């Protein structure tokens, strides 16, 4: 079942659909109206090219939210309670103005270059990475292994080494930055049987070059060969 079909069915039953778009916002097309998405949470520092500490929550006009706990008075300082209208009712404290400006620049970059162009290039890089990793017997790749069915993020493990060891070697020997561990998703790692050590996550970007992808493959091949 695709997201659009699921969203329409849930809305017809009065069920609110919350979509986690942390990895997909800015990487794949999202249409909240077509897919009847009630709530969509996203982070700014991944595919949206924004700085850390940014993100947002889309709330459909037909969804009524009521915060469980409120603090301060928000944008209406003359009142004792948080405002009862959006977006102010969900925005407390001082906004991260510098971060929001950075996120705005990232979104503008995507709109100017075009999401389809970005997606096409990232799929090409992902395919190149997956093809290279498939030639290394000691490397296990997790996920669909199909660029059209995933974002430009690939998780792997190397036989005989922990993710932390592989990450340290990539950093110290090859100047390659990856993220290792459980990636804030311990349940997901239990599902793919990589808990508690996790995996090595390779995140590609529209700003990466093909030779950089090849460098990652070559580095992992050498690390795997060392045993």
Secondary structure blueprint with pairings:
Elements: H1 3-12, E1 18-20, E2 39-43, E3 55-59, H2 97-113, H3 115-134, E4 139-142, E5 153-158, H4 163-174, E6 179-181, H5 186-191, E7 199-203, H6 210-226
Parallel strand pairs: 1-2
Antiparallel strand pairs: 2-3, 4-5, 5-7, 6-7
Q: Helical percent range?
A: 25-40%
Strand order of the largest sheet: 4-5-7-6
Mean pLDDT: 94
What's the CATH topology name of the largest domain? Aspartate Aminotransferase, domain 1
Number of folding domains?
2
Query: Gap between N and C termini, in Å?
Result: 42 Å
CATH class of the largest domain: Alpha Beta
> Outline, from the CA principal axes?
elongated
Q: What is the CA-based Rg, rounded?
A: 21 Å
Structure at a glance:
The chain has 227 residues and is α+β, with helices and mostly antiparallel strands. It has 2 domains: 3-113, Aspartate Aminotransferase, domain 2 (3-Layer(aba) Sandwich); 115-226, Alpha-Beta Complex (Aspartate Aminotransferase, domain 1), CATH 3.90.1150.
């Amino acid at each position: 079942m695709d997201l659009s079909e699921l969203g329409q069915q849930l809305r017809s039953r009065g069920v609110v659909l919350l979509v986690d778009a942390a990895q997909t916002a800015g990487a794949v097309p999202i249409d909240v109206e077509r897919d009847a998405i009630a709530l969509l949470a996203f982070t700014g520092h991944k595919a949206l090219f924004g700085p850390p500490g940014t993100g947002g929550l889309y709330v459909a006009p037909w969804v009524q939210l009521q915060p469980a706990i409120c603090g301060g008075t928000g944008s209406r300082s003359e009142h004792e309670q948080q405002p009862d209208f959006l977006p102010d009712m969900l925005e407390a404290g001082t906004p991260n103005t510098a971060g929001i400006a950075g996120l705005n620049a990232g979104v503008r970059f995507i709109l100017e270059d075009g999401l389809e162009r970005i997606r096409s290039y990232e799929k090409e890089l992902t395919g190149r990475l997956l093809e290279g990793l498939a030639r290394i017997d000691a490397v296990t790749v997790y996920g669909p292994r199909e660029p059209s069915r995933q974002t430009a993020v690939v998780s792997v493990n190397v036989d005989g080494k922990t993710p932390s060891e592989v990450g340290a070697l990539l950093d110290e020997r090859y100047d390659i930055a990856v993220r290792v561990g459980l990636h804030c998703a311990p349940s997901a790692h239990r599902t793919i049987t990589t808990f508690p050590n996790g995996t090595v996550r390779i995140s590609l970007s529209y700003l990466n070059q093909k030779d950089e992808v090849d460098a990652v493959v070559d580095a992992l091949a050498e690390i795997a060969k060392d045993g």
